[in-house]
Every structure is written in structure tokens, then in C-alpha cells.
């Protein structure tokens, strides 16, 4: 699709709104669509509109499901194109049809002012680059640029403009066909891999592949602080206004313009683990380290009957696990069942644990090769408890920036929360070993939001299966696979966010 009409008919961005030439928009090398800066989760840093020197992949085209962005060093020629396009668009915005500009009065000052946005080169110490700009414009006259020589004898200045004044066509070059989106076990293509020149390959090696929609460099949940990956909310009001305010740099971004990014599938949570635990790339298996350390899955449940499986794939003689369910505040530098927020079943002797008390449960423990089932039953009360209502929107929490992404920061005090724990009548947890029902382990568990969770001690590897295809399907017909929770949670979140935006509409202002 290279002809102009079809380019313009293409869908724009995730939001499906029109292009806006007055703001920064990025061109995806995969689907070759435009994306508005404020619709992009990745924190881009200083940029200017009409840039040519970057590799961007949108969420739909990036193998990880997370946007990737990388600046490529701009040549002076590209800087000239970007400068002229911006100067021209600025005039157009003011209603003027001016397309020719002075090197000294317009082009050089623009480049000077936006140097860091335009290029990764460091600022020049001397002004010799001024000559380079003039030479660059001269060199590509008739190809990229055009000039106007003064007719008036008094006037000596030559003006320059773009040969093609249709600035909507300015985007990074796509040299090869887009990479196919990798799925499942297929080989993954490094983002940007198809446009990297020989010279740039070195930096490509440093580009870390992200795993299943979560940034490799991320903050860890710790000491009552929890971090939820944020993405721009397409339904938030005043978004275009926010886009066009160019004095926002450095100020706090209003949280309500963003929303929690819900993982598309249930996996182990990279950010919700003791840092010493090693999680595999697919985020379905985890290996222990030295002392006991724990990890939670990405999703919780607070009502209904839910099931997941865990298989012990490797286990050294002196290693152990305690697997079960835990709330968000359960300490991860301890086994599950160490505090009041978790319930577990230990491999050694089959002991069950809650609040650091170990009680006899199954006559034998479990070990390498065993597949275990974990079932939690949280009946829906006639009057839903605070945990059984929709999860509240987190749009009112502060947004914090960590590397290239924004996160909502939540804070909860475990010492305070533990006082509020109340048992949920008729709730229970039971475990299964290779399909055998080991009977109820815990009854009347505390009301709350429970994640699949496991603690590992030394060299043990556990592989998780959240369904829907289980090795030993749960015997209860109404038990749902944890995998079902992903879609359900997306719906709950979106309901909660919509309610928040509606209730607070009058107070949401850009100030
Ligand atoms: Zn958009
Ligand atoms: Zn794309």
C-alpha cells in the first residue's frame, strides 16, 4: 500500500482517531500505521514531530505485546527534513501558507532548540555544523529540498523548503517487509531487527527482549508498595488537549489519563516475586535459590471456585516447596503460609501451613514428577464483602516512572490490614496429588483476594499450568481454570475505570 489514498484511509493508532500533525506521532515499522504520543505507553522522552530516525513497533506488532522504541542517530539530512516539516506545519497551524525558510533565522535556530529531540549526537561545541546544514540543503536540491533565490538585488538570502510539501508522508524508511508477529514457541524477531544497519548492530545486541508484555527492567513489589504497569486510557477525557500542551514536560502526568494494563493471560508475575527466584521466559516455571523465597501469579480471585496445577520438574535432595494461595500482602521473602495472608502444602511430609503453623495433612509429601492440583472455593455472600465487589479503579493512585514505563504506585500497610482479616464462611482450600483428592486442607479461610503462590527452597523447579487444559481436571464441575480470570479481570477493570471517569468527570482537569 504505497499510494497516497490508501495510506490515508488506514486506521490511525489504537484509538482510531485522525492524525494530528501538531503533536508527536510515531510510525510503526510493523503495521505502518501512525500512533499518537499520548496513546503510547512507552515513555518516549524528548522528541519532535516528523522525525525519521527511530524504530517503533506498536503493541500489536511487537512480539512481546509491549511497544518498543529506539532512536537511531539522525543524519544532518534527516534533521533538515524534520526541521523544515515542523517550520512549515507551524505556519500552517497559524493559517499561513509559508513553505520556504531561512537557514540563519529559521532552520538553524530550530535545530539548536530541539537538538536532543532531533538526534542522539551530542551537541556540537563549535558552530562548524552550521556550514554542514547549508551544504546538506544544497546537495539534495531538487531531490529532497528546493530553494528560492532572491529576485531583489538588495535581498541576498536564499530560502529553503521541502521538495514535497505534503508532510503527512514523512516517516522512517521501511527497507524490508514487516516481521511476522511471533506466537507461542516460534522464534522471535528482535524488535527493530529489520531496519538495523550494519553499523547499528552493536546497539541491537544491548536491546533486551521483553518477556510476555512486561518490561525487563521493572520495579518489584516490596514493603507494602505495589506497582501496576500503566498504559494510556483511550477513554479518558481531555486527551487531545493534553497532547497539544507542549509545556507539560517535567510536570506530573495526571493519573486518570492512564489505566492499569491487565495482562492478557495468567502467568507468573515478574514484579511480584522475591528477586532471587528465576522465572523462565514463558513465565510458567520458576526455580528456587537458597533460602525460602516466594512468587505470586499475575491474577487473583475473590469469589467462585478456581483451580490450577503445578508440576515439580526438578527437585534436589535437600530442596522443598510450599505451594498454595496467598493474598497480595503475603511476605515473599518467606514461604507461603508464613503469615496470615497465605495457605500452602509442603513437599516434605505433606504438611499444610498457615500463619507459620505446620499441621499434618497428607500422609505423604510430594516430589519430582508429581502434578499437584490447587483448588480454592470462595462462596459469594448474600451481601458481597469488600473483597467481593468490583476491584476499585486505581486511577487515583500516583503514577511513577521507572525506566521507560509508568506504574501506578499502591501502598498498603500489612500490620493494619492483618487486623481487618475476617474468615469467609463456607470457604475452603483443597489440594490434589496426581488427580487424587487429598481432602479439604483449610476451611473458613480469611476473606480476601487470592493469587496462586509458591515458595521455593533451594534447587527446585516448578512448572505451572493455569488451564484450561489440565493433566488432571478438577472433579468439581463448577471449578474454573485460573486462565479464565484474565478476560474476566479485563472486563472488571474496564467497568471500574469507566465508573471512575463518570463519577469524577467534573473534577478531571488539566491544570
Ligand atoms: Zn491515538
Ligand atoms: Zn504496528
From TrEMBL:
The keyword Hydrolase does not apply. PANTHER family: SET1/ASH2 HISTONE METHYLTRANSFERASE COMPLEX SUBUNIT ASH2 (PTHR10598), SET1_ASH2 HISTONE METHYLTRANSFERASE COMPLEX SUBUNIT ASH2 (PTHR10598:SF0). Gene3D superfamilies: 2.60.120.920, 3.90.980.20. GO terms for molecular function: transcription cis-regulatory region binding; zinc ion binding. This is Uncharacterized protein. PROSITE patterns: B302_SPRY, ZF_PHD_1. It is found in: Nucleus. GO terms for cellular component: Set1C/COMPASS complex. It comes from Cyprideis torosa. The keyword Iron does not apply. Keywords: Metal-binding, Nucleus, Zinc, Zinc-finger.
Amino acid at each position: 500500500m504505497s499510494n497516497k489514498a490508501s495510506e490515508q484511509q488506514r486506521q490511525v493508532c489504537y484509538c482510531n482517531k485522525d492524525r494530528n500533525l501538531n503533536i508527536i506521532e510515531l510510525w510503526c515499522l510493523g503495521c505502518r500505521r501512525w500512533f499518537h504520543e499520548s496513546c503510547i505507553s512507552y515513555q518516549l522522552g524528548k522528541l519532535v514531530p516528523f522525525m525519521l530516525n527511530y524504530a517503533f513497533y506498536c503493541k500489536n506488532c511487537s512480539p512481546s505485546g509491549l511497544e518498543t522504541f529506539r532512536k537511531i542517530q539522525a543524519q544532518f539530512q534527516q534533521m533538515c527534513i524534520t526541521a523544515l516539516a515542523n517550520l512549515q506545519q507551524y505556519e500552517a497551524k497559524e493559517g499561513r501558507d509559508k513553505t520556504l525558510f531561512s537557514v540563519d533565522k529559521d532552520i538553524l535556530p530550530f535545530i539548536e532548540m530541539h537538538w536532543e529531540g532531533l538526534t542522539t549526537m551530542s551537541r556540537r561545541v563549535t558552530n562548524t555544523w552550521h556550514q554542514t546544514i547549508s551544504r546538506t540543503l544544497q546537495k539534495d536540491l531538487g531531490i529532497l529540498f528546493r530553494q528560492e533565490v532572491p529576485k531583489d538585488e538588495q535581498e541576498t538570502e536564499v530560502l529553503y523548503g521541502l521538495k514535497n510539501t505534503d508532510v503527512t508522508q514523512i516517516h522512517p524508511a521501511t527497507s524490508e517487509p514487516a516481521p511476522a508477529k511471533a506466537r507461542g514457541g516460534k522464534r522471535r524477531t528482535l524488535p527493530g531487527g529489520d531496519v538495523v544497519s550494519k553499523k547499528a548492530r552493536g546497539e541491537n545486541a544491548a536491546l533486551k527482549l521483553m518477556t510476555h508484555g512486561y518490561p525487563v527492567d521493572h520495579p518489584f513489589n516490596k514493603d507494602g508498595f505495589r506497582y501496576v504497569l500503566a498504559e494510556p486510557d483511550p477513554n479518558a477525557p481531555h486527551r487531545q488537549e493534553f497532547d497539544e500542551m507542549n509545556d507539560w514536560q517535567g510536570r506530573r502526568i495526571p493519573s486518570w489519563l492512564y489505566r492499569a494494563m491487565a495482562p492478557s493471560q495468567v502467568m507468573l508475575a515478574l514484579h511480584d516475586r522475591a528477586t532471587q527466584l528465576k522465572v523462565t521466559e514463558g513465565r510458567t516455571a520458576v526455580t528456587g535459590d537458597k533460602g525460602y523465597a516466594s512468587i505470586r501469579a499475575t491474577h487473583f480471585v475473590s469469589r467462585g471456585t478456581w483451580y490450577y496445577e503445578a508440576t515439580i520438574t526438578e527437585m534436589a535432595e535437600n530442596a522443598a516447596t510450599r505451594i498454595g494461595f496467598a493474598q497480595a500482602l503475603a511476605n515473599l521473602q518467606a514461604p507461603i503460609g508464613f503469615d496470615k495472608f497465605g495457605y500452602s502444602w509442603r513437599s516434605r511430609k505433606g504438611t499444610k501451613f498457615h500463619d507459620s503453623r505446620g499441621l499434618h495433612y497428607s500422609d505423604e509429601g510430594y516430589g519430582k514428577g508429581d502434578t499437584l492440583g490447587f483448588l480454592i472455593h470462595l462462596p459469594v455472600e448474600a451481601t458481597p464483602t469488600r473483597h467481593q465487589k468490583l476491584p476499585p479503579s486505581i486511577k487515583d493512585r500516583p503514577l511513577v516512572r521507572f525506566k521507560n514505563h509508568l506504574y501506578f504506585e499502591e501502598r498498603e500497610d500489612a500490620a493494619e490490614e492483618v487486623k481487618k482479616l475476617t474468615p469467609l464462611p463456607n470457604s475452603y482450600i483443597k489440594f490434589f496429588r496426581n488427580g487424587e483428592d487429598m481432602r479439604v486442607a483449610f476451611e473458613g479461610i480469611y476473606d480476601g483476594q487470592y493469587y496462586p503462590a509458591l515458595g521455593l527452597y533451594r534447587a527446585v523447579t516448578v512448572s505451572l499450568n493455569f488451564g484450561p487444559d489440565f493433566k488432571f481436571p478438577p472433579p468439581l464441575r463448577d471449578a474454573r481454570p485460573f486462565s479464565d480470570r484474565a478476560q474476566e479481570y479485563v472486563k472488571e477493570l474496564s467497568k471500574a475505570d469507566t465508573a471512575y471517569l463518570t463519577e469524577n468527570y467534573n473534577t478531571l482537569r488539566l491544570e
